[in-house]
Amino acid sequence: MGKLVYGVGINDADYVTQLFEPIVDVCGKKKQKRVWVCPFYEKWKDMLKRAYSEKLKLRRPTYGGITVTKEWHLFSTFKSWMEQQDWEGNQLDKDLLIPGNKVYNQETCVFVSRQVNLFLTDSTAARGEYKIGVSWNKKNSKFVVRCNNPFTCEGEYLGYFLQEDEAHQAWLTRKLEYAHALATLQTDERVAKALINRYTNYGSLL
Q1: CA 20, CA 35: separation in Å to the nearest integer?
Q2: How far is residue 26's CA from residue 13's CA, in Å, rounded to a whole number?
Q3: CA-CA distances (angstroms) from residue 8 to 41, 57, 74, 85, 91?
Q4: 43 and 124 together in one domain
Q5: Which of 44, 46, 157, 182 is deepest in the core (most CB within 10 A)?
Q6: Which helix (H) or strand (E) holds 31?
């Protein structure tokens, strides 16, 4: 058996999962450049990295506590699952179906588009002093609300409000409207349903 991937992963593929070619850098040192990687292996390795790379966790503390189910420590098992998913061009997500989930496994994971991933990331951004979507405008002495539009990738101004709760509700209402719109574009029914549930039950999922 070869070296474990991130201390736990076993690459049992019966084919070459990565191809390298020798290059010489500007300092004259010989190095190996990766010129191809199996897409299944790439997703598997990235998943293990997020769960078990200590260097990555130092840079991104939110990855703390993440694990991968033991069955997926074996590459072939993960690959068999991934082949049955709508994975091409999409990103692996572990907590859309179950908010707050920290375990990668076949019951909790789905593949989502980059558009959906960015939309969800916006919902868990650092809140700062005020509720998500809300900031204080000192000049007008009011709360101002903005929501990222997942279709234009631009921030959308929603107005000024006197109360923080009212401002946050305006953000949530708009977010739910976008969730419904995104849901109509999904090929995976689980993703479509989870998008709507996320913002329908937003307060209870925090």
Answers
A1: 6
A2: 35
A3: 14, 16, 9, 24, 22
A4: no
A5: 44
A6: strand 30-37
Q: Does residue 8 lie within any of the structural domains?
A: yes
| pTM beyond 0.70 | yes
In a domain, 97, yes or no: no
Asked, for residue 105, whether it belongs to a domain, the answer is no
Q: What is the pLDDT of residues 17-59, one digit of tens each?
A: 999 999 988 888 888 999 999 999 999 999 999 999 999 999 9
H or E stretch including 152?
none
Query: Cα–Cα distance between 187 and 193 in angstroms, integer?
Result: 11
Note the helical H segments in the chain: 39-52, 54-59, 75-82, 114-123, 164-183, 189-200, 202-205
DSSP assignment of 78-114: HHHHHTTS--TT-EEESSSSSTT--EE-TTT-EEE-H
Domain containing 51 equals 1-88
Number of domains in the chain: 2
Task: Please check whether residues 137 and 184 belong to one and the same domain.
Answer: yes
CA 166 – CA 4 distance, rounded (Å)? 52
Do both 6 and 74 map to the same domain? Answer: yes
Which DSSP symbol is given to 10? B
